[in-house]
Amino acid sequence: MAAARTTKNSPERDKNVTFYQSRAEATRARSAWAATQYLPGGYRSFTAMVAAAVMHETARLAKKFNDGQPFKPLPAGAIKRGRRPGPRPDASHLVQQTYSQKPSDTAAARGAWAATQHLAGGYDSFADMVATAVNHETIKLENRHNGGKPFPEPGTENLRPGRRPAPPKDEPAPPAADPEPAPVSAAAAGTKRPSAKKPTGSAKSTTARSSRAKKVTSTDTSARDTAAATHTDNPKPTTRTRSARSPRRAPAAD
Description:
The protein has helices at about 25-35, 45-65, 105-115, 125-145, 185-190, 200-235, and strands spanning about 15-20, 95-100. The protein is mainly alpha-helical. The chain has a domain at about 20-75 and about 95-145. The chain has a two-stranded antiparallel sheet.
């Protein structure tokens, strides 16, 4: 059976979720993701790391407070928005983070938070739950790949959008040397003659015109030679001029 097609307005299309972290925690989490994204257990993107961390925390709360059974999902809009009563906390040291997640997974995580927020070990807000889950996942990556120590910061510049670069590879091997040509015997080298290149294109037409011109010149030369030979072998007879005949003498009288 073919999978259902996800359209722009499909309920399973990933949607953005916002949470807040201190600047130090945000830098530490992104450093852990960047250093382990190509290692076993790493994540292809930072948003994938956050989404996985939220689901791990959702499963932990269900195991701790609901005998491992998932809580009732709480879809978006079920919680009243607005400022909570009491003094407003200082958020000057916090930075806003955003990740994408399927609405069904977000509803399951919100249900776990709403069911345990008044219990010991619960969270005051869903954003606090997400931030704590990210911190737990960061520590897990550090323990697995860096001996429990924070990873060095990759840099202060923003990550460039687009496809990720290919994972680093070992240094390429030096190019192989060209194979040496096979030796040619002396006899073959002495008798071998370079093959003439066959004319193509304009060279063909030039060769044809040259051949025709040579043929015509040869024909004219042969005709002149034949005429000269004929004149030499059969000279034209000389015309002799006849002199005037003298008058006949009259016979002498007896």
